[in-house]
Design goal:
Strand order of the largest sheet: 1-2-4-3-5-6-9-10
Strand content: 15-25%
Structural class: alpha/beta
CATH superfamily: Alpha/Beta hydrolase fold, catalytic domain
Shape: globular
Number of domains: 1
CATH architecture: 3-Layer(aba) Sandwich
Length: about 280
């Protein structure tokens, strides 16, 4: 694993993890709300690394990246973070793979930079709207009940809500080492960051309709947080998108069934690589 520190939007220092094969199809992993790059461990340390260049971001306010007090409401800053990752690591036509909140960051990038520089898009149990009745309608009531605890500055309340969130992300039981590792990097995220992420108002239907790049939508059949209707809505707006419902997987299908997830992503990456424009000699 390689670790990078780069400067993203507004001068925010970002931490990245890299694994895999240089000069191969890059895949940029963008984690979800209150998570970090370690969420993708079962991808970074897998057969995907034999044939692909894998980069996992710590989003601003998460993991080892900086947590500025007020730098989360402007979509341009999120877009600049992705653009800086691509530029500083010299990523040619990467696939942007976003989980849960991650698709919102991908769409921030596309809104401000367009899609010419990316090879493909992978939404994983993701949302593409915030701050409206329609956005809330695809979220499970059990998840919504936890939201006030995410914003609490009381340590016990915050930890209790985050632990419930983590248990909802997966099918089956987390082992104690898995749970406490995940809980550690969730607790690291400040309450003001969590609240700022939920305070945004976004509707990206226009971008979903207009995208022309290859798109894969993956959704766990047993997702207890984001309803399947979110993935179906995305598929309805992106005529050429492929929708893959993973049986036996929950909100984090890349964790629940990493081998199946990785095989599907590898197939998609090969398809994206085949579509890359020829380089004039």
């Amino acid at each position: 694993m390689l670790h990078h520190e780069i400067i993203g939007g507004g001068g925010t220092r970002l931490h990245l993890i890299e694994a895999g094969k240089q000069n191969s199809q890059p895949i940029v992993f963008i984690h979800g709300f209150s998570q970090c790059s370690l969420a993708w461990s079962r991808q970074l340390d897998s057969d995907l690394a034999r044939d692909h260049r894998l980069v996992a971001m710590d989003m601003r306010g998460h993991g080892l990246s900086d947590s500025p007090r007020d730098a989360y409401g402007d979509g341009r800053l999120w877009a600049d973070d992705v653009a800086a990752t691509m530029k500083e690591l010299d990523l040619d036509q990467p696939i942007l793979c976003g989980w849960s909140y991650g698709p919102l960051v991908i769409l921030d990038y596309i809104r401000h930079y367009g899609e010419e520089a990316i090879g493909g898009i992978h939404f994983v149990d993701g949302v593409t709207k915030l701050g409206s009745d329609e956005a809330v309608s695809v979220l499970a009531p059990e998840f919504l009940a936890l939201v006030p605890g995410f914003f609490s500055t009381d340590a016990e309340t915050s930890v209790r809500s985050l632990e419930s969130l983590l248990r909802m992300c997966v099918v089956g039981q987390l082992s104690p080492p898995e749970l406490y590792t995940m809980l550690g990097y969730n607790v690291r995220v400040a309450a003001h960051v969590r609240q700022a992420l939920f305070s945004r108002v976004l509707d990206n239907d226009d971008l979903l309709r207009s995208t022309r790049k290859p798109v894969l939508i993956t959704h766990g059949a047993e997702d207890a947080i984001v309803r399947r209707a979110a993935a179906e809505h995305q598929r309805a707006l992106i005529a050429h998108a492929e929708l893959d419902i993973m049986k036996g997987a929950g909100h984090a299908p890349f964790f629940d069934d990493a081998p199946a997830f990785n095989r599907r992503l590898a197939w998609f990456a090969r398809d994206v690589a085949r579509r890359r424009p020829a380089v004039a000699v």
